[in-house]
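worker-03 picked up job from queue 'complexes'. Input manifest follows; four sequence lines, order preserved.
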Amino acid sequence: MGQDLSRDLPITAYALLGLLSFGDSLTGYELKQRADRTLRFYWVSPAMSQVYSELERLHDLGLVKSQGDARSTSYSLTSRGSSVLTDWMNTSPVGFPVLKHPVALRLLLGALADPARVTNMLRDHLAALDEERAALEQVRHSLEGQDQPGDPFRYPALVADWGSSYFEHERTIVEDLLRRIHEGT
Amino acid sequence: MGQDLSRDLPITAYALLGLLSFGDSLTGYELKQRADRTLRFYWVSPAMSQVYSELERLHDLGLVKSQGDARSTSYSLTSRGSSVLTDWMNTSPVGFPVLKHPVALRLLLGALADPARVTNMLRDHLAALDEERAALEQVRHSLEGQDQPGDPFRYPALVADWGSSYFEHERTIVEDLLRRIHEGT
DNA sequence: ACAGCCATGTAACTCGTTACATGATTAC
DNA sequence: GTAATCATGTAACGAGTTACATGGCTGT
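worker-03 finished. Artifact:
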């Protein structure tokens, strides 16, 4: 029982530690909500069941401590957890982003599909993009007033701006593509 | 033996079928190279071993046919493979992109890291971005002359332009972030 | 001779998902 | 009372990875 301390954790584990690094104590359920609100834009929001199993592992490793009963347990970082996370931030190899883009993948094969399907797909993507962007901007607004240098949410604010700008630009690209597809017909 | 025909294939299987939909016949090895050159920008380039196992499954399902011996086997689409792929293009739910962005994830937690580390990370990301973009633009150039409406590589060209524009914009965002981080210090 | 590429696979393993199951608390 | 939300887990499974193993062919 327990975990092999010599093995590296998956990045998702560090991400969850990161979500716990803002000073509060969260239940698995709340942690999942926070992941849905923020983490999902730059990483992935793990399934509920994975949140619980990951918390169990982190607890076994002594990186988080729990309080409360079986009915409702909340977790917070231990000092070891905090130092492991800081160490990961400072020394782990970063790597290049991986994008799984089902719209681009299908556009690549656009010749195989009904032309109307391609157009609809891109239009639907525009709508989805707007929705996601609105959700992200809501998060961004909730950080206002605590987003200046030295404030606790400065970095989350920077990342949220990054995401917004990404969504905004993606919109203009897709609009462009729609135009190019139609002028050529 | 054989595969359960009622089950859906993973998207990666359709992606591989898609790479075989340009009329030629490829070995597993060549298919992996094509994935490394193109697919990796919008999806993921599967490991060598997965390419082989996926090809075996597609063969079992009658979606690709093989020619050659055990020394070197090349695969091409069957008409069933082609119609399954077209059907997937026209009817499958598309879904929103998933981005796993280790740089953004770490920037979110930037407060925990050495400030120099954050800066270096972003600068390294700029360099990596330029490399990736150069690779993609090389692909794009190889499509020139066959990228007009009606040409075989029109859609791949559109997607390559999408990718280029994405890399370009990501560069400007990161440059902006670097500026914002330094003016606030 | 030796390096590097072409080519094909097997085995073990982890991550992460979906489906399932349970029950308490809160709001209407 | 009943629906939604809060809360926690188990089980089965699939996708995809890394490590390993093999061997032919090509260029120098």
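worker-03 released lock.
Helices of chain A lie at 11-19, 28-37, 48-60, 79-91, 102-108, 115-142, 154-183.
Chain A has two domains: 2-91, 102-183.
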